[in-house]
From TrEMBL:
One Pfam family cited in the UniProt record for this chain: Pam16
Topology relative to the membrane: Peripheral membrane protein
Homology family: Belongs to the TIM16/PAM16 family.
InterPro entries: J_dom_sf, Tim16
GO cellular component: TIM23 mitochondrial import inner membrane translocase complex
Low complexity: bias regions: 100-116, 156-170
Disordered: region residues: 32-56, 91-122, 143-179
Record key words, sorted: Membrane, Mitochondrion, Mitochondrion inner membrane, Protein transport, Translocation, Transport
Species annotation: Kwoniella newhampshirensis
Transmembrane segments: none
Protein name: Mitochondrial import inner membrane translocase subunit TIM16
UniProt key word Protein transport: yes
Length: 179
């Protein structure tokens, strides 16, 4: 065989392999696009569970996810859920402002200069606070919709937000903590 013929066959074979791989990747992308995982709300259905889908899409969180975030079971009473909410929300809150920030900074600098590692200051996460707040809001909206009060799921979500703000002392407006 001559060298140009071998090179031409290699190029043709390479193009065939690349074409098959591209076609397989395209068909897999289409299957991934059409796939609907379990537990995800279907926005196009108007069936019996459409009010749940409406609340899920409105609040951006499924009921199962809300229960997982707050570490509660589905059948737990609201006072237990509220207690879990307050504990997790407080754990992710910023520490209260110290009375002597200058003295604390000088003491911290002295510790670092002595060669010891500085103690870890508890951190806070606005993102986690927001997730915890939205989880409580989602559970309250579902309970409102289940009891049939408040004019539907949308009104229940608004009532849940107002109740969560009122139930959390010293947080100001929502998960922002008055910031």
């Amino acid at each position: 065989m001559s060298a140009p013929r071998v090179i031409a066959e290699l190029v043709v074979t390479g193009i065939k392999v690349l074409g098959k791989a591209t076609a397989a990747a395209g068909s897999q992308a289409v299957r991934n696009f059409k796939h609907k995982p379990e537990g995800v709300a279907d926005s196009g259905s108007g069936g019996a569970g459409s009010s749940k889908n409406k609340v899920t899409s409105q609040l951006g969180m499924s009921l199962d996810e809300a229960h997982m975030i707050l570490n509660v079971k589905k059948d737990e009473p609201m006072d237990v859920i509220q207690k879990h909410y307050e504990t997790i929300f407080a754990a992710n809150s910023p520490p209260p402002p110290s009375a002597e920030p200058v003295a604390a900074a000088a003491k911290q600098a002295g510790k670092q200069q002595a060669g010891k590692k500085a103690s870890k200051v508890p951190t806070h996460s606005f993102y986690l606070q927001s997730k915890v707040y939205r989880a409580l809001e989602r559970i309250k909206a579902e309970r409102e919709a289940a009891t049939g009060g408040g004019g539907g799921a949308a009104a229940g979500a608004g009532d849940a937000a107002a109740a969560a703000e009122a139930a959390t002392p010293g947080t100001g407006s929502g998960p922002t903590g008055g910031r």
